[in-house]
Design a protein that fits this description.
Blueprint lengths: L1 H13 L5 H10 L1 E5 L4 E3 L7 E7 L1 E8 L2 E9 L3 E2 L2 H6 L6 E4 L3 E7 H10 L1 H27 L2 H11 L1 H6 L2 H7 L4 H9 L3
Antiparallel strand pairs: 1-8, 2-7, 3-6, 3-8, 4-5, 4-7
Helix pairs in contact: 1-2, 4-5
């Protein structure tokens, strides 16, 4: 329960401060899952039933298009991830969540967090904050692709998520930045 309480506290720090009582309620519904490197937390076609918090490790969300993989997001320690359409609508996901390292995830289950939010306003506000943060992250990524060069995108990743550059395979990083591995190599070679 102590780990769950620490995760609840971290979720609160990322959104809105909540009371000790609300933290304990939130901790009581968290689901701990360990997944090995290369295993999926969520498969394409499954319904996303949890908002994930990475306590340890690294995951990526990706999808297939024309038989090619495209990385949507990376999440490492302290990050929250969600397949937002699948989670909110409870429909099959087009995204896959894969562990790139041995990973420990604490999940906020869909039905339980909604029920808890209905009885506890603080949890409702925290839940809304998690969704808002996810939407903002998606918007920032789309703006990055529309407005930044390949060099600017890579430099942003270095600045904002240096752990990803150190830990994720270059092929996944290239996919995430919407460039070929060859372009990524050229961009990396130009960094002084």
């Amino acid at each position: 329960m102590e780990d769950s309480l620490n995760v609840a506290l971290e979720l609160s720090r990322q959104t809105v401060s909540i009371s000790k009582e609300a933290l304990e309620k939130l901790a009581s519904i968290l689901v701990r899952t360990e997944i090995k490197k290369g295993q999926n937390f969520l498969n394409e076609g499954d319904v996303c039933k949890q908002i994930g918090f990475v306590q340890k490790g690294l995951v990526r969300q990706y999808y297939y298009k024309n038989k090619k993989e495209f990385t949507e997001h990376f999440s490492c320690e302290g990050d929250v991830f969600i397949c937002i359409e699948s989670f909110l609508r409870q429909v099959p996901s087009r995204l896959i969540v894969e562990a790139l390292e041995n990973t420990v995830i604490y999940g906020l289950p869909h039905d339980e967090v909604l029920a808890l939010g209905a009885e506890c306003y603080e949890i409702e506000v925290l839940y809304r904050g998690l969704l808002e943060n996810s939407l903002i992250l998606s918007q920032v990524k789309m703006d990055m692709f529309r407005m930044e060069t390949a060099n600017e995108r890579y430099n942003r990743l270095l600045r904002e998520q240096p752990e990803i550059v150190k830990r994720a395979p270059l092929s996944h990083i290239a996919s995430y930045l919407l460039m070929t591995p060859e372009t990524l190599s050229r961009v990396r070679a130009n960094i002084v």
